[in-house]
Amino acid sequence: MSLASERRAHLAAQPELLRAIRRGIEKEGLRVDASGNLAMTPHPSALGSALTNPRITTDYSESLLELITRPLPDAESLIGELTDIHSFVALRNPGEPIWNQSMPAHLPPEADIPVAWYGTSNTGMLKHVYRLGLAWRYGKVMQCIAGVHYNFSLPEAAWDLLADGDTPQDRRNTGYMALIRNFTRHAWLLMYLFGASPAVSRSFLQRAGYETRLTRLSPDTYCMPWATSLRMSDLGYKSPIQSDLQLCYNDLDTFTARIHRAVTTPWPAYEAIGTHRDDRRIQLNTNILQIENEYYSSIRPKQATGRCERPNTVLRQRGIQYIEVRCMDIDPWAPAGIAVQTSRFLDAFLLYCAVEESPLFPPPGFCQESQDNFALVAREGRRPDLLLQRDGCATSLRDWAEEALDRIEPYARLLDAHSGDGGHAAALDPQRAKARDPDDTPSARLLAALREGGREFHDWTLAQSQSHWEFLRARGLPDDTLAAYDAAARKSIADQAAIEAADTISFEDYVARFHAALGPAPVC
């Protein structure tokens, strides 16, 4: 019996561990007007404070909502809660639909894209200035790209079965890093199966050189013909400077040491920008990364942080609490941007990544082959007879995808054995169809809809978004649920006011304290 089979048997004998798995979602989406143009209005007060509302905040832009669920025990309750939050937004801000696509709506000139505002407290200003820095470093257009972040955790006792280590925290860290390595090896599969952003509107192409890298499909629509996800390609949420970081997923100590180096090492181009203009701070520092969250990756190890705590520091101190999958495109056919079936597949996929053997990456612990596969599938994943690299050898995407789905199936059945239905195994069936026929993938379906209907990407997406918006408004919410969200919104506004009133130091002193919280460079 293989090690993975032994581990599955142990999990099967302890169903309480599978029932204790938790998953959560952070889903981004642009507010737009009736014509599908970026909403230029402030964050709606009926939704509460973007700083302190635990369910509704903003990401980069003032117009980019981020809707956040609790950690929940199954896919049905997860997507149900996410849909509830969408319905609340639709009821309380009905005139501005959420753009249900990862690539942006029609954008104004870059200078006019509003940066998110969180109030005058030091905490709020830190978030705002960090986003100003992103604008200077990467441009505002890139920061309007949206996605679905999927959080996943196993209970502490599961790592006693799945990982080695002297303490529970050691075992948890070792296990999650192994999960991340296996995820990194197979993340291209998620791009192929769920990538849904092969096209963009012309207004996205404000950066020089973009048009020459794309094919013009119609007057306002550009695409890469074989792409699955422009969002996760080098045209999307990427930084050429960060590509040289070579972060290591072999162990948490090395990973956090390299992140520490990135957030403390100056970069000449950012030094040229400086930290202040006209006596106002425009970025937090001139280092490769202003803060840890600036690192653009398809997956992150995570630990909850408090006010003024640094993610890297709490990871070293308290260990990994959960992982965050960051590569999922918004599903334009799902009202909440992700379907229950997709959530079930992700659970089986991530359980597979956690349980299967996960060899260390070769020195220096960098996964170049896996990253190259990921980038290739984002750009050309539906190209006929596409070959990927697997341990230095060329292999067919289709063959590898079918093999991976076969290996994920036992984990889907393991989850089904303790959920009372066959939903996880059933979630594999449409993925097998996509592996056999690229025309079944979301990216192919989207391009086919544009070609067959003779429609622009913008117009098609606006119609989809408005249809979902009407459904969400008509769906409504139970009175007690609506009242609870209203109460949370009011409370968040009061909480923000209390934070602002409690500040006793200057913003510059607060920034210095925040940087100091990173601590000395770790030894690994």
Automatic annotation (TrEMBL):
Question: Main EC class of this protein?
Answer: ligase
Q: Which GO terms describe its cellular component?
A: cytosol
An individual GO BP term: glutathione biosynthetic process
Q: SUPFAM superfamilies under this entry? A: Glutamine synthetase/guanido kinase
InterPro entries (alphabetical): Gln_synth/guanido_kin_cat_dom, Glu_cys_ligase, Glut_cys_ligase
* EC number assigned by the record: 6.3.2.2
Q: What pathway is this protein a component of?
A: Sulfur metabolism; glutathione biosynthesis; glutathione from L-cysteine and L-glutamate: step 1/2
One MF annotation (Gene Ontology) recorded for this entry = metal ion binding
Q: Which residues form the Glutamate--cysteine ligase domain?
A: 14-362
Q: Decide whether keyword ATP-binding is in the record.
A: yes
Keywords recorded for this protein, A-Z: ATP-binding, Glutathione biosynthesis, Ligase, Nucleotide-binding
The record's catalysed reaction(s) read: L-cysteine + L-glutamate + ATP = gamma-L-glutamyl-L-cysteine + ADP + phosphate + H(+)
What the entry lists under PANTHER family is as follows:
GLUTAMATE--CYSTEINE LIGASE
Q: HAMAP family given for it?
A: Glu_cys_ligase (MF_00578)
Q: Name the protein family.
A: Belongs to the glutamate--cysteine ligase type 1 family. Type 1 subfamily.
List the protein's name. Glutamate--cysteine ligase
Q: Which organism is it from?
A: Castellaniella defragrans (strain DSM 12143 / CCUG 39792 / 65Phen)
